[in-house]
UniProtKB/TrEMBL annotation:
Pfam families reported for this sequence: OEP (PF02321)
Cross-referenced InterPro entries: MdtP/NodT-like, OMP_efflux
Alphabetically ordered keywords of this record: Cell outer membrane, Coiled coil, Lipoprotein, Membrane, Palmitate, Transmembrane, Transmembrane beta strand
Coiled-coil ranges (or none): 84-118
Localization: Cell outer membrane
UniProt biased composition (Low complexity): 137-149
Protein name, UniProt field: Efflux transporter outer membrane subunit
Record membrane topology: Lipid-anchor
Main location: membrane
Region annotation (Disordered) ranges: 129-149
Similarity comment: family membership: Belongs to the outer membrane factor (OMF) (TC 1.B.17) family.
């Protein structure tokens, strides 16, 4: 019989061996199962957090509890831009930061599967051949006589072992791994939301730059006409050389500002390319004539919106995992109960290996525990409890940060809205002042220096209005992200 045939013949061995001693192992297993009703370590209780009853900057808020399972809508659609929607779709499928976090989540899922596997028996099957020998004890022995001490041993063996989870160590381990996997999933949602928010902010800033570019291009054309008119007046002796110099200075300064916008736009365009998984050289975003509208924030937002924040969910599930790890550490004080069954066949020849005289077996429970370890288990319990306290503090801080961020963005939007009203009034006044001043200069009533001052003020007001719109758009994106991703879907659900 060849060595390879041993593996082929040993396949039915495990089944016959388990059947022969299965009743004894089953009895021991039932006893162990009765003992395994308890689990060492504290059961999880959600940590108390100092959450306010409502927000200062919005009515209708009440105390929130983390619940990232609540539905999130396609919040970027609030801006009504099809091109932006398409970019988000590409980000969801090709962003490498999201792909990296998704791979980490799959690793966490695999650990959960491994932890569940520890509840089942382990079955081993081995077959092999051993060649051994020893000396005859005589230095004068011939080579042939010394070879008589060499022998072959053929074995085929099966073994079954199962660790009874008497103290709940395995259950606490599974609880920790499950919580870690859920935290990893929440981290994935947080990274995806962060990347989406970054893309939307970059896109909106790019569109504002497009509008600023159109404004400066129109201003350059107007300044070119003013320069030409001033040069004509200088040649006619109506204006002095200083007026021409002032017109040229104004024109060239505005052209320089226009050039500066080109590299600013390129930076946002390159950032968007990387976010959707492309090299900047492979991506080009054409200019458009419109800026996406500012979404209207509801006057009353339900507190459940904050509950969807994935970073809060991740922090809480880390607390659950740390709490379970305390039980794992405390279970190390107690003995491990392992039930095992082993048996097989062993013979000096391969002939008639699977026969009754060549059979051997063993079955029985085994208790194992550490009697003295120099305080290592106690130190591990202390470390686990300290790690739990750390995660609790992190969870509470994450909740507080969430409330702070929403408060900040709500008040920012409110202040910017009020500022926009005043800024528009200033812009209207600057436009009217420029119109009147240009008419006076054409009539020869005032010098060109007066026109330059008014033109500069009007352009500053135009650009300030665009900068303010950009700030309001960015703040709206940041508020949506701080709320866990939009509000429309949840408000519709509440109304139903």
């Amino acid at each position: 019989m060849t060595d390879r045939s041993l593996f082929n013949l040993a396949t039915p061995l495990a089944a016959s061996l388990i059947k022969a001693r299965g009743s004894r192992l089953l009895s021991l297993s039932l006893c162990a199962a009765m003992l395994s009703a308890c689990a060492i370590g504290p059961d999880y209780q959600r940590p108390q957090t100092a959450e306010p009853a409502q927000y200062k900057e919005a009515a209708g808020w009440r105390q929130a509890n983390p619940s990232d399972s609540l539905a999130r809508g396609a919040w970027w659609e609030l801006y009504g831009d099809r091109q932006l929607n398409g970019l988000i779709e590409k980000l969801n499928s090709a962003n490498q930061t999201v792909a990296q976090t998704e791979a980490q989540y799959r690793q966490a899922q695999a650990l959960v599967k491994s932890a569940r596997g520890a509840f089942f028996p382990t079955v081993d099957l081995t077959a092999g051949k051993t060649r051994s020998g020893k000396g005859t004890g005589s230095s004068s022995s011939s080579l042939s006589s010394s070879s008589s001490g060499i022998r072959n041993t053929y074995t085929a063996q099966a073994g079954v072992s199962w660790e009874a989870d008497v103290w709940g160590k395995l259950r606490r381990g599974l609880e920790a791994d499950t919580a870690n996997a859920e935290a990893s999933y929440a981290d994935l949602a947080a990274i995806r939301l962060s990347q989406q928010s970054e893309l939307v902010q970059n896109y909106l800033q790019l569109r504002v730059i497009d509008e600023q570019k159109r404004l400066l291009e129109a201003t350059v054309e107007a300044y070119q006409r003013s320069l030409k008119m001033t040069e004509n007046q200088y040649r006619a002796g109506v204006s002095g050389k200083d007026a021409v110099a002032q017109a040229q200075t104004q024109l060239k300064s505005t052209e320089a500002d226009l050039v500066d916008l080109i590299w600013q736009r390129a930076q946002f365009e390159n950032a968007i390319a990387v976010l959707i998984g492309l090299a900047p050289a492979e991506f080009k975003l054409a200019e458009t004539d419109e800026i996406p509208p500012l979404p209207e924030v509801p006057l009353s937002l339900p507190s459940q919106l904050l509950e969807r924040r994935p970073d809060i969910a991740s922090a809480e599930r880390s607390v659950i995992a740390a709490n379970a790890n305390i039980g794992v550490a405390k279970a190390a004080y107690y003995p491990d109960l392992t039930l095992s069954l082993n048996g097989g066949y062993s013979s000096s020849t391969s002939k008639d290996l699977f026969s009754l005289p060549n059979r051997f077996w063993s079955v029985g429970p085994q208790l194992a525990m550490t009697v003295f370890d120099g305080g290592q288990r106690s130190a591990e319990v202390d470390r686990s409890e300290a790690a739990y306290d750390e995660t609790v503090a992190k969870y509470r801080q994450t909740v507080l940060d969430g409330f702070r961020e929403v408060e900040n963005f709500l008040v920012q939007l409110k202040v910017l809205e009020n500022e926009a009203v005043v800024r528009q009034q200033a812009l209207d006044a600057a436009r009217e002042s420029l119109r009147l001043t240009q008419n006076q200069y054409k009539a020869g009533v005032i010098a060109y220096l007066d026109v330059v001052v008014v033109q500069a003020a009007a352009l500053n007001n135009e650009r300030s209005a665009l900068d303010l719109l950009q700030s309001r758009l960015i703040a709206s994106v940041q508020l949506i992200a701080a709320l866990g991703g939009g509000w429309d879907g949840h408000l519709e659900h509440e109304s139903d």
